[in-house]
Amino acid sequence: MSHNEQAYLDLCQTILQKGNEKSDRTNTGTLSVFGHQMRFSLQEGFPLLTTKRVPFRLIASELIWFLRGDTNIQYLLKNNNNIWNEWAFKKWIESDSYKGPDMHDFGNRSQQDPEFKALYEKEMDNFKAKIIEDDQFAKMFGDLGSVYGQQWRAWKTSQGDTIDQLTQVIEAIKTNPDSRRHIVTAWNPEDVPSNMALPPCHTMFQFYVADGKLSCQLYQRSGDVFLGVPFNIASYALLTHLIAFECNLEVGEFIHTLGDTHIYTNHLQQVNTQLDRTPYSLPKLKINPELTSIFDVEMEDLEIIDYKSHPAIKAPVAV
């Protein structure tokens, strides 16, 4: 059994046994613990969970989106990635431009009412098609504001300049590997209240170089343990691999530190299903050795090898 995956399964068990019942922004309800840390040895294998299928393609295309500094879901949809749809869709249905049927609280209603679900899916398909085909519509409703990509690559300063945090941290790792300042932050207090579709959950990450290996620690203020955290683990493991590749280093550890660590109450059955499964061995990640810069990475430059998993487990997204 992988110690990496067991760290995640132990977290699920801890929340089920010790979690506090809490209300939340989405009115779904959660079981929550505060302050938890998991460690993943990237030498052991790539931490893509095996107790349910986790789609690496979605993780990779989202990370590429971040690396490019993009904040519009048009790129994601063109790559068949629907991770961020709900937040952009919410922006559209709450605008004066939307003339369709009432879609309020669509996340919960679509789980409870089959007739509404069919209506919602029709509206969502219409929305996605418009985002892909109509650049002006995408500009109006596909952009999520100053989310991760912009904060990583074009942090706005009080002087009106921008800071490319990711480029700077890569250069610092290459030239001053022992620095304690290899930090990228996505939490911009000025943008959080008014200019982000969703305030960043993974707020800050730091790199550490020792023995020729690159490690990364993420601080995540809020973690949806069933749906979101498996993606976050794999995404930051992939980021660590890519930065190590860029800096000619091996990979070390990914350390995942979480604040409000929660399971939504409408995910409890799914979590228990996952806990009943036995993990398989972890897969391996292969990066195209001819890649010259991680900022030019394409999907075909990344490959997951020997990934064996149990089937996917569906659950509603709380928006």
Automatic annotation (TrEMBL):
EC number per UniProt: 2.1.1.45
Task: Classify the source by domain of life.
Answer: Bacteria
**Which positions are catalytic residues?**
201 (nucleophile), 201
A GO molecular-function annotation: thymidylate synthase activity
Tell me which Pfam families the record gives: Thymidylat_synt
InterPro entries per record = Thymidate_synth/dCMP_Mease (IPR045097), Thymidate_synth/dCMP_Mease_dom (IPR023451), Thymidate_synth/dCMP_Mease_sf (IPR036926), Thymidylate_synthase (IPR000398), Thymidylate_synthase_AS (IPR020940)
Q: Where does dUMP bind?
A: 25, 180-181, 221-224, 232, 262-264
What the entry lists under SUPFAM superfamilies is as follows: Thymidylate synthase/dCMP hydroxymethylase (SSF55831)
Write the record's keywords in alphabetical order, separated by commas.
Answer: Cytoplasm, Methyltransferase, Nucleotide biosynthesis, Transferase
Quote the record's binding site residues for (6R)-5,10-methylene-5,6,7,8-tetrahydrofolate. Answer: 224, 318
- What family is this? Belongs to the thymidylate synthase family. Bacterial-type ThyA subfamily.
Q: How does it assemble?
A: Homodimer.
Q: What is this protein called?
A: Thymidylate synthase
Question: Which organism was this protein described from?
Answer: Paraliobacillus quinghaiensis
